[in-house]
Amino acid sequence: MDTQYEGGNKGDPVQITEDEAAVYDRQIRLWGLEAQQRMRNATILVIRLRGTATEAIKNIVLAGIGKLVIYDSEEVKEEDLGAGFFFRDEDVGKQRVDAAKARIEALNPLVTVQALRHPTLLEQVSLEALIMSVDLVCVTDWDREAMIKINDICRQFGKPFYAGGTFGLLGYVFCDLLKHDYISPDRSAPKEAPKNVKATASYSRLSMALQHRWTGLTKRQTKELNPAVVHIILALWEYQHKHEGKLPDDVDAVSELGQIANSILATSDVNRQVLTSVPLDLIDTMSTSAAHEFSPTCAVVGGILAQDILKALAAREAPIANFFTFDGNTGGGSVCKMNM
């Protein structure tokens, strides 16, 4: 097991071989050889292997990225077996990355997989070196402060950043793609002459996105963004911060979680015709279920996360801008543009 990242000069871009072109034929026809080439040359770092990461890794590895670096310093627990399909009963007690590596490699032998688990890798200097060595960073199911720290380092070195995770039946994906150029279909062009146009989107870092205000949105616009789910996720991050990383796990948390959620709501200027307080049933549910993973929620959120990472790498179509939430109670998702 490596304790250090195998860094070094990435060198010239690797060209897709005939064998690889045959494996990825369907995708190449979908988004073009150039986009597949970009994915083939990408090194992606995924931090923390829980259910969301498991699903996201499956999709990006099958799509044909060049190298995947996985980091997790924890051991497999019994509760990981439900949503983490890289783990088996006999893996309980083993390091997560050790248990997952061979199964990830089996998905697509064309992708190089490196597993890292040494806790010192997350110390400032080591973390900076690690982030500098990759093309894109994805953090899953982690606390707000750690995500902000990693996002800020990604900003420092010009690396795109993704975060995703689930709380029971709820989930989220956030991305900071800095200044992102992509090709988008020109929907104003006549049908007989479809055209693509170049577009650019400027993203904001997570610490800035969290200062977002909902001022000026109509009742309908606000409803479409599902503000109750956004605010309960923000409240769960704050609860986690106050309780040293622990999420609520029983009814005793209802009162505190409700106070946090409604305090955040009071300052964010949401249209009061839509939402005057975060629904009590949502607070009740999150108080007992936020700490638990549900496989279907992880599948949806991890799938969206992977799809968006591939979009960003391929530079085809607009990625999420910039905070996606999923509500497993209704099966619906929405994208809220937070401070960008």
UniProtKB/TrEMBL annotation:
THIF-type NAD/FAD binding fold domain boundaries: 24-337
The species is Suillus luteus UH-Slu-Lm8-n1
**InterPro entries hit by this protein:** ThiF/MoeB/HesA (IPR045886), ThiF_NAD_FAD-bd (IPR000594), Ubiquitin-activating_enz (IPR035985), UBQ/SUMO-activ_enz_E1-like (IPR000011)
Question: What are the record keywords, sorted?
Answer: Nucleus, Ubl conjugation pathway
Specify whether Cytoplasm is a keyword of the entry. Answer: no
UniProt record similarity statement: Belongs to the ubiquitin-activating E1 family.
Q: Which GO terms describe its cellular component?
A: cytoplasm; SUMO activating enzyme complex
**What protein name applies here?**
Ubiquitin-like 1-activating enzyme E1A
Pathway given for this chain reads: Protein modification; protein sumoylation
Stored PANTHER family? SUMO-ACTIVATING ENZYME SUBUNIT 1, UBIQUITIN-ACTIVATING ENZYME E1
